[in-house]
Design brief:
- By secondary structure, the protein is an alpha/beta fold.
- The chain folds into 2 domains: 150 residues, HUPs (Rossmann fold, 3-Layer(aba) Sandwich), CATH 3.40.50; 119 residues, Riboflavin kinase-like (Elongation Factor Tu (Ef-tu), domain 3), CATH 2.40.30.
- Helix 7 runs antiparallel to helix 8.
């Protein structure tokens, strides 16, 4: 798979099927679009091209007071696109100037002239161009002029709820990790460096790896305890993750700590991936350390059960 960031990098012989969007999370709705794109590409011998944005438009336009957190980093999105069989990714540097481009100019200069698109596959609620005035109908009209066809893909639902990045973020923030994973069609994860913490866990029999999340915009699940898988050097381990402030020990800063089961390697400075499977319980302040130890033992038993170990 190739990743482009400039239109002059695209071969002149390019003929493509294109879809445009932020694709945050690459959830089941996005995947239905991608599946149709790859089918069209194979049938008509076209290049499949995902056009995505960096930074996220809501961040670039200073919406939400910069509170938006992301399900997937750009690197994570590129990896998933490749796994799903996409041939090319075009990363647009999203700016206020880009957002102000009229949809007609965007279609003519970018989709038609640069990407040489023959098909556009879009989600049912996709809008683009200045003031989001471009939509399915305008794409159809311009397709007659520029020689491409348009297909609109309907929303994909889970438990009668249409999958969307916004809904999945809400689920993850509110501990409903299993429902979020169902909409994503994979288990939500975070990657970060193992850094030195206060080393309290090892003194009570539950040593933890303290994780510094690699991307500050990455969404951290809601405070609590989770059953997780942990990937270290391409090997998966079972574990439990605590996200919170360790109220028993009065930690003033939010921390992400993972107790990796049956693991005793020194991994300080390494990047590891934490993969969220189930929510276990809320964070609790215990009256003493012994109560905490007993609860951690019960947590581990439940986690092993949830992970079918």
């Amino acid at each position: 798979m190739k990743v482009f960031k400039q239109t002059n990098e695209i071969p002149k012989s390019f003929l493509s099927v294109v879809s445009t969007g932020t694709f945050d999370g690459i959830h089941k709705g996005h995947r239905s679009i991608i599946k149709r794109m790859t089918d069209i590409a194979h049938e008509y011998h076209l290049q499949s091209v995902i056009v995505t944005f960096e930074p996220h438009p809501r961040i670039a336009l200073a919406m939400d007071d910069f509170k938006l957190k992301l399900l997937t980093t750009l690197d994570e999105k590129v990896t998933i696109f490749e796994q799903l069989g996409i041939d090319n990714v075009f990363v647009v540097n999203f700016t206020k100037e880009f957002a102000a481009i009229p949809y007609e100019v965007y279609v003519k200069n970018f989709l038609a002239a640069s990407l040489h698109c023959k098909y556009v596959v879009m989600g049912f609620n996709h809008h683009f161009g200045n003031k989001r005035s471009g939509n399915h109908e305008t794409l159809l009209e311009l397709g007659k002029l520029h020689g491409y066809q348009v297909e609109e893909i309907s929303g994909q639902s889970e438990n009668n709820i249409v999958a969307s990045s916004t809904k999945i973020r809400h689920l993850i923030e509110n501990h409903t990790i299993e429902e979020a994973n169902a909409m994503l069609t994979y288990h939500y994860s975070m990657t970060g460096e193992v850094v030195e913490g206060r080393m309290i866990g090892r003194t009570i029999g539950f040593p933890t790896a303290n994780i510094k999340i690699a991307d500050s915009l990455k969404l951290i699940p809601g405070i609590g305890v989770y059953a997780v898988k942990v990937q270290v050097d391409d090997v998966l381990y079972n574990g439990m993750c605590n996200i919170g402030y360790n109220p028993t020990f009065a930690n003033p800063n939010l921390s992400v700590e993972v107790n990796i089961f049956d693991f005793d390697q020194d991994i300080y400075g390494q990047n590891i991936k934490v993969i969220f499977e189930n929510y276990i319980r809320s964070e609790v302040k215990f009256d003493n350390v012994q109560e905490l130890i007993r609860q951690l033992g019960r947590d581990k038993e439940l986690v092993l059960k949830k992970l079918n170990v």
